């Protein structure tokens, strides 16, 4: 079966490729964001769906490459991904770097000794995340990966866990880091990477990409 098709050179921000496995001839930075699906589940949370882009092998590879570009000259000992969707990108990044992967989990799943951290996220709910205590050590440089940063509450809790165990946050990587107070705090205090070109950042912040106008799955 043919997994990817070459399409005419076009700007995917204006004319998105709705075939999820298609690859445009010109792959500008962030082209794969137009593969994202809009929220169709109602108005409670304006959640976007980056997981659709992971289905396209070239999109996943380009996304991982873009997330790693700012860190090319940096020492990274371990990649940590945040439950749940951060596991996909985190493990892909770890494999690309040939480093190990540490799962930072929502509470109640790790049946080993853990450190835990309370936090709240874009839902406003109080949550707890946990990390096993037998991996992170002082001096270890950890790249934290998640799918998305909205309020920054989730990422900040993960940062606190890593630092409390004495390790160093080498950087923070996510498909998108919204320009919220918490998102800016992360950008101000840590090395970071994301996949959103400047001209799409305000669309991301408003939870609506122009590419959704012609979205059909
Ligand atoms: O910046 P914040 O406001 O804290 O929100 C960011 C978090 O929210 C999403 O995960 P969510 O828990 O909704 O879903 P998931 O379990 O599917 O990853 C996202 O992947 C981040 O982990
Ligand atoms: N995938 C996502 N899209 C939009 N906002 C989010 N907030 C947390 N995750 C998000």
Secondary structure layout:
Layout: E1 6-7, E2 23-24, H1 57-68, E3 78-82, H2 86-97, E4 100-106, E5 114-120, E6 126-132, E7 141-149, H3 153-164, E8 168-177, H4 181-189, E9 192-193, H5 198-205
Parallel strand pairs: 1-2, 3-4, 3-7, 7-8, 8-9
Antiparallel strand pairs: 4-6, 5-6
Helix pairs in contact: 1-2
The protein binds 1-O-pyrophosphono-5-O-phosphono-alpha-D-ribofuranose and adenine.
What would the CATH topology be? Answer: Rossmann fold
Helical content, roughly? 10-25%
What's the average pLDDT? 92
The top-level CATH class is Alpha Beta
Distance N terminus to C terminus? Answer: 20 Å
CATH architecture: 3-Layer(aba) Sandwich
The total of helices stands at: 5
The biggest beta sheet, please? 7 strands, mixed
Q: Provide the low-confidence segments as ranges.
A: 1-17
Total count of strands: 9
What is the domain tally? 1
Q: What's the arrangement of strands in the largest beta sheet?
A: 5-6-4-3-7-8-9
The global form is globular
Strand content: 15-25%
Ligand species: 1-O-pyrophosphono-5-O-phosphono-alpha-D-ribofuranose, adenine
Instruction: Please identify the structural class as seen in this structure.
Output: alpha/beta
The helix/strand order is: EEHEHEEEEHEHEH
Taking all Cα atoms into account, the compactness measure Rg is: 17 Å
Enzyme class: transferase
Subunit structure: Homodimer.
EC number: 2.4.2.7
GO molecular function, one term: adenine phosphoribosyltransferase activity
């Amino acid at each position: 079966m043919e997994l990817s098709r070459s399409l005419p050179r076009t700007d995917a921000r204006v004319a998105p490729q709705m075939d999820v496995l298609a690859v445009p001839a010109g792959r500008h930075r962030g082209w794969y964001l137009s593969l994202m699906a809009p929220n169709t589940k109602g108005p409670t949370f304006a959640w976007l769906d980056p997981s659709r882009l992971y289905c396209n092998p070239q999109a996943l590879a380009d996304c991982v490459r873009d997330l790693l570009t700012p860190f090319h000259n940096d020492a990274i000992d371990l990649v940590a991904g945040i439950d749940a969707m951060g596991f996909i990108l985190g493990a892909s990044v770890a494999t690309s770097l040939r480093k190990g992967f540490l799962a930072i989990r929502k509470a109640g799943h790790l049946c080993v000794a853990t450190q835990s951290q309370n936090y709240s996220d874009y839902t406003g709910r109080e949550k707890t995340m946990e990390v096993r205590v037998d991996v992170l050590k002082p001096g270890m440089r950890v790249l934290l990966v998640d799918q998305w940063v909205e309020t920054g509450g989730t990422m900040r809790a993960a940062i606190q866990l890593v630092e409390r165990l004495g390790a160093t946050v080498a950087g923070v990587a996510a498909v998108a880091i919204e320009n919220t107070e918490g998102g800016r705090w992360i950008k101000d205090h840590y090395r970071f990477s994301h996949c959103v070109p400047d001209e799409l950042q305000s669309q991301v912040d408003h939870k609506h990409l122009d590419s959704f106008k012609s979205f059909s799955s």
